[in-house]
Prior knowledge:
Blueprint: H1 2-28, H2 33-43, H3 46-61, H4 68-90, H5 104-118, H6 130-145, H7 147-178, E1 184-189, H8 194-205, E2 211-213, H9 221-231, E3 238-242, H10 250-258, E4 262-265, H11 273-276, H12 279-286, H13 288-292, E5 299-302, H14 306-311, E6 318-321, E7 328-336, E8 339-345, E9 351-356, H15 361-376, H16 385-390, E10 399-403, E11 406-411, H17 417-429, E12 433-438, H18 448-459, E13 465-469, H19 474-483, E14 491-494, H20 497-506, E15 514-519
Parallel strand pairs: 1-3, 1-4, 2-3, 4-5, 5-6, 6-7, 11-15, 12-13, 12-15, 13-14
Antiparallel strand pairs: 7-8, 8-9, 10-11
Amino acid sequence: MALRIILTVLYIVTAWFPVRHYIHMFQLNSYKPKVQLKWLKKNNHFWIIFLVAILELCLAFNNPANLGLHRSLCVYTALLAMFFYTVYVHFPKKSYKIPLKYTARVKRLLATTAIIYLLPTLLNFPFLGSIATAIMGVIYVTMLIAAPFIVLLANLINRPIELNINKWYISDAKRILKECPHLKIIGITGSFGKTSVKYFLDELLSVKYNVLKTPGNFNTPLGVVKTVRGELRATHDVFLCEMGAKNVGDIKEICDIVHPQDGIITSVGPMHLESFGSLENVKKTKFELADALPDGGKLYLNLDDENVREMSAGRSFIGYGIDSREGYYASDITVSEDGSEFDVTSPSGESCRFRTKLIGRHNVINICGAIACANSMGIPLSDLRQAVRRLESVPHRLELKKQGSLTVIDDAYNSNPSGARAALDTLKMMDGYRILCTPGMIELGDMQHKLNREMGEYAAGCCDYAVAVGKTNSEAIREGLAAAGFSEENFYAAESLNDAMKKIYTLTGNGKSKIILLENDLPDNY
């Protein structure tokens, strides 16, 4: 009996580590079972655990029936090995970039998972004998092996509860919005640039209006609902609603909650192709915002983006950009380490000179889009000059930093083909020893190797030294650099970001000041 108790305690304590790990990854995978299953396929080591389980079965049942003590000892030896291995694999060994958030949903998921894990312990004590002990050992090991699937089972059990809770929150948010009939709601979406435009537009519209924006990257239906329920007041004039998407219908779902009057589409590109399936689906999804606007609603489109321009056919819109001369456009751009200067011309022909601390063509386009919307809402171009001068970099989105003798262009929030090119173009404009440091791009499905290879080819003309971080895309980036004639001596494959930075600090820079572009930073589930 004492051994039974030890066995059960070990089982319960050990189960915590894989359960916590897989719930954390499930949270990072947006609580999407299909995404979690794809992640499991790439990131689990079931074969090792399976071998341990087979070993346990062999030890437990390949003995004479009368050798009960021997059988029990074999079972416990195998179980101890299994427990120690499970703890070793799943014990947190690092500070996570995004730690597990113990939200109400996570607590409910933990509670249901705990009940499932405790059920086998009820069978442990009524039956005695070495065979019963061996069977319980097999059950315990099986439960530990099945941890990722038990988490998904718990989620399935909780699904009706979660749906009802979400439905109530959404209904409450809709009620609050109906009680603000004079509120101007502007939806903002795009494959990249949407968060920057949101922050810029908030600053510009604040010249005249009381503005509420979704904070950070709160761009999911429940993130929007949380903002409305927690922060919207009757005194707000404008609500800037960022809308993110990983699947067809995601933008429509948010639009059905907030019903935007105006919309801004910043870009359309090959991002999240694993879940979207194709670029055509990305295009349709981003333009769900345009389809949701009422008659008379204003649609602002970045016409420098070829996919946006393609989808604009037959629509009424206000354009903005640099190369395009339709609507609002920026021209006479000058860039230095101190920032950028440019002219913006409105559809009426009025022109005004702007100065900003921000750098890069992409930032200029995003500012131009914010100016287009603010000016169309009645704020004169001249009144926007000081607001543009006050604009700050959005954290980790082409954010210019000084670190001693190093200049860092921090574009680490995420990456996609168009955004990476914009960041590399910014690096190319800088005067110094230019260093690219990147783990490459992810969630691109079957196109991932090809698109990372193309990024490597493009980077060859923009940097003097390149560092690929991690194993995910290192080979693809190396191939692209080599195809463009980039010297192998100027490439380094780093195991981690710390390894990459150590290497970068050893570079002499040929006597020039070092400028580092940090392009993307993979999340903990990669």
